[in-house]
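Researcher: Please translate sequence to structure tokens.
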Amino acid sequence: MELITVTMVTGMAITRREIEYITDNQGWVLLYGRRKVGKTFLVRNFIKHDDYILIKRGGGALFEKGPVRSCDDNKMAMALIIDRIQDGKTIVIDEFQRLPDEFLDRLQMVHPRGRVLLLGSSMKVAKELLSSRSPLLGLLGEVKMGLLSPSEIFIGLSEVMPAQKALELGTYLRDPWSIPYLGGSPSETMIRILNRSKEAITALIGEIFLSDERYLSRVYEGILRSLADGKTTLKEVADQLHSRGLIKANDPSLIRQYVLIMSSMDLIQKIPVNNKKGNYYSIRSKIMDLYYYIDEKYGLDLGGMDLAMEVYKERSPRHIESFIGELLAEIMGGVFEYQMDPDKELDIMIKRRNRIILAGEVKWSDRVRKKDIDSFSGKVEGLKCKKVLISKKRISVDNIGSLTPEDLLEMAKKIKR
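Model: Translation complete:
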């Protein structure tokens, strides 16, 4: 795949695979995802287009080119857009869901003339556009844009820093809006983001639910806070929400639909648990997880650098494990799972076609102890798959592989090539 720069920070290149799809697909495209994932930046800078049109909140539109650059009337905006399409132009329509429903009917009438890229931040509208009742069903290529993939952020960061630091920072910088805060050590970067973006994270969550549910539900935020507080199953989350008076009973079915919506928005991560029906739930954006954890425990009063550093050190091992698990699943074309049996708990299990192809454990300390190696050997004994210990430095153990950050980086680059 051709290297395409999407975000530049101190000479660092981050690439996004969505560009390749949009570039190769010369038809009409719907690009959607929550705010602050880089949709507008990607299209305006890396997709050839004749005009970029932003639909205004109060009605009307702003036009990048042409004799009319701004109008406050929806009907006039729709007419100008249709004219450009009929002229065979390639146009980008950002926040298209702000226009009346009749706009979609008018688009259907001019298809397939021109080329249209619809950008939307509302998951609800995007789903409706792809439903069986939509006038544009079958006329649009669908691209959902979420967080940067583990390999994208890891490879990008490795261009300007050592592999270990790139992996540790990549765990937290998958949210594109956080990248400009990059600087110094991983813990210093986290502290900078948390100190400077307290309001930004709250506003981001508020905008997501304002767009899709018309209000920021206390249940949605309660779920995020519960996950940050260490609850990992729907039963545990429901228990806490019930105790706080947010749901009428401690029944997981009452929050299941909320969790599905939040998963579709890349807010919640669902990791299967090997040989069990349940799943392990967590907040997908680890910087957001830190934010809500601190807010739950300390009310966002960081109390200076020492407390923030303490929180980062406490949470980062599990966050790094999750990042490496997702990275290996991406590299190996499998599914990342946990094994949580009391006597055989494993950090990482990768499955393909329901068969275990890798069992791994992350030991992210400066020194891996012999008892840790022996414990892992006992857990994976009898498993017919690749068995690896992932650590900062290479270790030598019979019948067990060793992966370092440098190894993971080379593997990620290989699948990209």
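Researcher: Any highlights?
Model: The chain is about 45% helix and 20% strand.
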